[in-house]
Specification:
216 residues, alpha+beta, four-stranded antiparallel beta sheet, 8 helices, 41% helix, globular
Length: 216
Amino acid sequence: MVFHVLNRGNGRMRLFNKPADYSAFERVMAEAAAHVDMRVLAYCLMPNHWHLVLRPRETGDLGRYMQRLTVTHVRRWHEHRHSTGGGHVYQGTYKSFPVQSDEHFLAVARYVERNALRASLVDQAQDWRWCSLWRRDHPQVIDDVPALAPWPVPCPAHWKRLVNQPQSQKELEAIRTAVQRGRPYGSEPWQKRTGTRLGLESTFRPRGRPRKEEGT
């Protein structure tokens, strides 16, 4: 099963201040993927957060990969800044949600790979150096970076053009709800089956306390 994973710097603190910081994180991604045998499908590293699209092979691999990734990154982040014990790097535990391996996967991959363009950091999505879209344009760059695994669905021939086009507001809202709630992203029948299978039924319930009826 495919998962989208996200985490942010504590208090929206910058995680990456210079190219070497991004490169260091890519090295940790590669090391963690080799240790757990994780398939990295897509990613985008932003100044104060990152998005990963991962496809674990075994139950529990996602948690093992993310623990290895974040613990190693935090330790090296503090060592580089000589700030060991100086506070939290991340806002908390990473957020994740499962993604159906069909057009919904393509929507999430597109959302991830156009992140820097949506934030106006580049004029074209493929120009953002710290993203899987750039990596696919530069396959010769293989030093200390995570290998990109084949996708569960064919990549459209006009993918780059698609990524550079805005997504619909409806699609964006659906993905952002999945991010915030940890809700499975896919067709309604798939969402329900996956929610039951993974114990995510609560992600479909309305937030907040139930309204009291009059007279109670």
